[in-house]
Amino acid sequence: MDFKQIIRMGLEEYTDEIRKALDGLTPKERRFQPTPESHHIDFAFWHIIRVEDEWLQGFARGVPTVWVRDGWPDRFATAGRGSGWGYDAEQIAALPAFDMDEMMSHFDAVRRETLDYLDSITEKDLDTFPQRERRPEYNVGRMFSHLLVEESQHAGQIAYLRGMQRGLNK
């Protein structure tokens, strides 16, 4: 098994878990916040898509994100920049409600770009430092490691928020 297969398996497992956690949730359930200082499911899902897009397009490739390139901010009435990193409670609450099918289309578009990039690199490329302002100490391999961990954390948060509202495995 090579590194591409391992990363792909992690991404596929994450995708399966996130789809399961989001399945059948109502718009009201997706906006549930345990406290005013917490985030909601819509924010967490939007954030992880934006993070993957920023890491792969902005950091690794040095090109415009799928979000900006394909006009997604207009579809969701949100700012063109930003991924939710460092957002405060006011900014989280201000994230516009969105159609989950549309957001899932955005997720799928970003994932296609991620897998295309993964298919295009070699093991040697994992040691490449893209020399970006944010996280200059990260190479491509560290970026993939961070991405898998961050996406898993947020998928767990989404599943937990779902469970708080519906109970275990419901």
Characterization of this structure:
It is built from eight helices and no strands. It is mainly alpha-helical and 170 residues long. Helix 1 (3-22) runs parallel beside helix 8 and helix 3 runs parallel beside helix 7 (100-120). The model has no long low-confidence stretch (mean pLDDT 91).
Number of helices: 8
Order of helices and strands: HHHHHHHH
What is the residue-mean pLDDT, rounded to a whole number? 91
Number of strands: 0
Approximate shape = globular
Tell me roughly what share of residues is in helical segments: 55-70%
Helix/strand/pairing class, anyone?
mainly alpha
The largest β sheet comes out as: none
From the alpha-carbon coordinates, what is the Rg to the nearest angstrom? 16 Å
Distance between the amino and carboxyl termini: 35 Å
Low-confidence stretches: none
- Percentage beta strand: under 5%
Layout of SSEs?
Layout: H1 3-22, H2 27-30, H3 41-61, H4 66-69, H5 72-76, H6 89-94, H7 100-120, H8 140-166
Helix pairs in contact: 1-8, 3-7, 3-8
Which key phrases capture this entry?
8 helices; 170 residues; mainly alpha; single chain
Tell me briefly what this model is:
This protein has helices at residues 3-22, 27-30, 41-61, 66-69, 72-76, 89-94, 100-120, 140-166. It is built from eight helices and no strands. 28% of the residues are buried.
